[in-house]
Specification:
Distance between the termini: 89 Å
Largest sheet: 7 strands, mixed
CATH topology of the largest domain: Heat Shock Protein 90
Number of helices: 11
CATH superfamily of the largest domain: Histidine kinase-like ATPase, C-terminal domain
Strand content: 15-25%
Shape: extended
């Protein structure tokens, strides 16, 4: 039998080889057990971090949604102000207030966008749409912003005048808008350019270019991360924002399955391209080039019923409408609206209602009720909601279609 001599506390002991192997096995078992314990602790910690991350995203989304209510009210109140009647010194201050409110609303919108896409609560709904018309609509806003900053705005989208794209038009609008917003923000001189060209029979490439600060190769590794702002401290102070624009672009492109490419050099501007699928082609000119004929039976609303459970927003909206010469009746719940219309004390030409009215009521049901009371299935109605995605679920989308609305209008 093989024996092994070991020394313990100065005393030599002789153990069989089997004993040494047994001790090694015990050590191995102990190590495996410890590794399993550490793995379980790590998994538990990861679960906790994921839970905290989800809670953070939910908190950001909820807080942003709730904060939009007073911001929306501020926006409406400012719209009702006759700036021309104010002293010049007050006019300049009020314009700064309006700019600040718009910036705050934009920040809250971006927070909600990032949170929804990260949490997977954004329901992507792909449809075919007129790409040329969408790009012209977006360009109208950002060309004005560029010109106000002294920049040239070059629009080259005629090559897609006959193209219908296939994507989620609301999310795509936000992706392109964030690219243009960043381009205008980070360009001090020169131009911003939006172009679109077919790459093949099935794909179109959109490109946003600028002659701005540019992004170094090191910065490009982290430019699409949320809450990351690049450049020097001076540059960050000079350009307002939270570092969410390109994060929304990447998250949105990923959700839509779009190819996203960035090319940039520090001091030489930036070019970002998106490749999206084509739905179909038309033989004639794009819809944006054809003026929409006015139907012969158009009715212009003069009497408007506003139903909004938030008193501040309700008053602000009513004030804006009255300043435009409309006869406005304001109520705060669905029951009051139904009683008012049912008694024929006020017969509206147009109904404007919030979606969530409290007490389990919603604007969709109210639209149907008011139409039934008036015996009119085509009375126009505008449904207002603070939700980022108006038709967030298939059932909700069917509800909107049921009252005659084909798609939501973002504002």
């Amino acid at each position: 039998m093989q024996v092994i001599a070991i020394c313990a506390v100065g005393v030599w002991m002789y153990l069989p080889a089997q004993a040494r192997q047994a001790r090694q096995q015990l050590k191995y078992v102990a190590l495996v057990r410890r590794a399993a314990e550490l793995s379980a602790q790590l998994a538990s910690r990861n679960d906790e971090l994921e839970r905290l991350g989800e809670e953070r995203k939910f908190l950001v989304e909820t807080a942003s949604h709730d904060l939009r209510q007073p911001v929306h009210a501020l926006h409406l109140l400012l719209e009702g102000v006759d700036f021309g009647a104010l002293p010049a010194s007050i006019q300049s201050r009020m314009r700064m207030v309006r700019t600040s409110v718009a910036a705050l609303g934009d920040m809250l919108q971006r927070l909600m966008d990032v949170s929804q896409i990260e949490r997977g609560t954004y329901d992507v709904q792909r449809t075919g749409f007129d790409l040329h018309e969408l790009l012209l609509s977006i360009a109208e806003t950002y060309s004005s912003l560029a010109q106000a900053k002294g920049l040239a705005f070059d629009l080259d989208v005629d090559a897609v005048a006959n193209v219908r794209a296939e994507s989620d038009v609301i999310l795509l609008r936000r992706v392109i808008s964030n690219l243009l917003s960043n381009a205008v923000k980070y360009t001090e001189s020169g131009e911003v350019r939006l172009s679109a060209h077919p790459r093949s029979a099935t794909e179109v490439e959109l490109v946003v270019q600028d002659t701005g600060l540019g992004i170094s190769s090191d910065e490009q590794r982290k430019v699409f991360k949320a809450y990351v702002r690049l450049g020097s401290k001076f540059e960050q102070r000079a350009v307002p924002g939270m570092g969410l624009g390109l994060a929304i672009v990447q998250l949105g492109a990923k959700a839509l399955g779009l190819k996203l490419e960035l090319q940039s050099r520090r001091g030489h501007g930036t070019s970002v391209s998106l490749t999206l699928p084509v739905a179909a082609s038309t033989d004639g000119p794009g819809r944006a080039d054809v003026p929409s004929p006015q139907p012969e039976n158009v009715r212009f609303a003069s009497r408007i019923l506003v139903v909004e459970d938030d008193p501040t927003i309700a008053s602000a909206l009513a004030e804006v409408l009255r300043s435009q010469g409309y006869d406005v009746q304001l109520v705060h719940d669905a029951l009051s609206a139904a009683e008012l219309v049912g008694s024929l004390r006020f017969v509206p030409d147009l109904l404007i209602t919030d979606y969530q009215l409290g007490e389990g009521d919603n604007g969709l049901e109210l639209v149907k009720t008011v139409r039934d009371l008036l015996g009119s299935t085509d009375m126009p109605a505008i449904l207002i909601t603070g939700d980022v995605r108006v038709s967030a679920s298939p059932s909700q989308g069917e509800g909107y279609l049921g009252v005659g609305q084909s798609e939501p209008i973002p504002f």
